[in-house]
Specification:
It is built from 7 helices and 4 strands; from the N terminus they run H-H-H-H-H-H-E-E-H-E-E. The protein is mainly α and 198 residues long. It folds into 2 domains: 89 residues, no CATH class; 79 residues, no CATH class. The strands form 2 sheets. It has a two-stranded antiparallel ribbon with strand order 1-2. Keywords: Membrane, Transmembrane, Transmembrane helix.
């Protein structure tokens, strides 16, 4: 009987989460999609959690079990936030599928680079979106039109470079060939640049 009640409460959480998320994205202001969706999960977990603590129907659950349910819902909400809205918002893979569909179901493979360089960056306002996310995350500041890393930004960049260089696949399939190119994407980067800030 407890399992059924836990399942029903979890179903209620999913319904409340989807409702809160739908209302938030439709009528609310969103700074960063991931953070917004996590907030929605927290609101849904709090609403259903209050119900679980308040309703006599859940009296056979002890306090620890109720807290466990709320933690489980938060983990589920976090998985939803990352796996659905954030992936669709950020995914180049989904963009390519949508663009191919927009163009009647087919695009010449040798023109995809042009599509990405000339359309993707503009249509998705990619620079504006990513700068906004980094500003909201506290990893960059913009000072006199110069984008600078904060201490947090330096630490995350160091972690990312370490992880990329040591813990990403060394034999990753890229267009029919296995390569380690993505473990060091700057390997063949132009070293002399003229857009650095003073």
């Amino acid at each position: 009987m407890k399992y059924l009640k836990a399942l029903l409460a979890t179903f209620a959480f999913v319904i409340v989460l989807l409702g809160v998320y739908a209302l938030h994205v439709r009528y609310g202001k969103v700074n960063v999609v991931l953070y917004s969706a996590i907030l929605d999960a927290g609101i849904a977990a709090a609403v259903v959690g209050i119900g679980v603590f308040a309703l006599k129907a859940f009296g056979d659950f002890n306090r620890f079990e109720k807290v466990q349910l709320i933690c489980l819902w938060m983990l589920g909400g976090y998985a939803f936030a990352i796996s659905v809205p954030t992936v669709i918002d950020r995914s180049l893979s989904f963009y390519i599928l949508e663009k191919i569909q927009q163009r009647g179901g087919g695009i010449h493979a040798d023109h995809l680079h042009d599509v990405l360089a000339k359309e993707y960056m503009i249509e998705h306002r990619l620079v504006d979106v990513r700068l906004t996310e980094q500003l909201q995350s506290g990893t960059i500041v913009i000072d006199e039109r110069c984008v600078r890393l904060t201490g947090r930004g330096h630490n995350l960049a160091r972690f990312s470079r370490f992880f990329r260089g040591n813990l990403l696949p060394r034999q990753r399939l890229l267009m029919g060939e296995y390569s380690d190119d993505l473990t060091d994407p700057f390997r063949n980067s132009v070293s002399e640049v003229n857009y650095r800030c003073g």
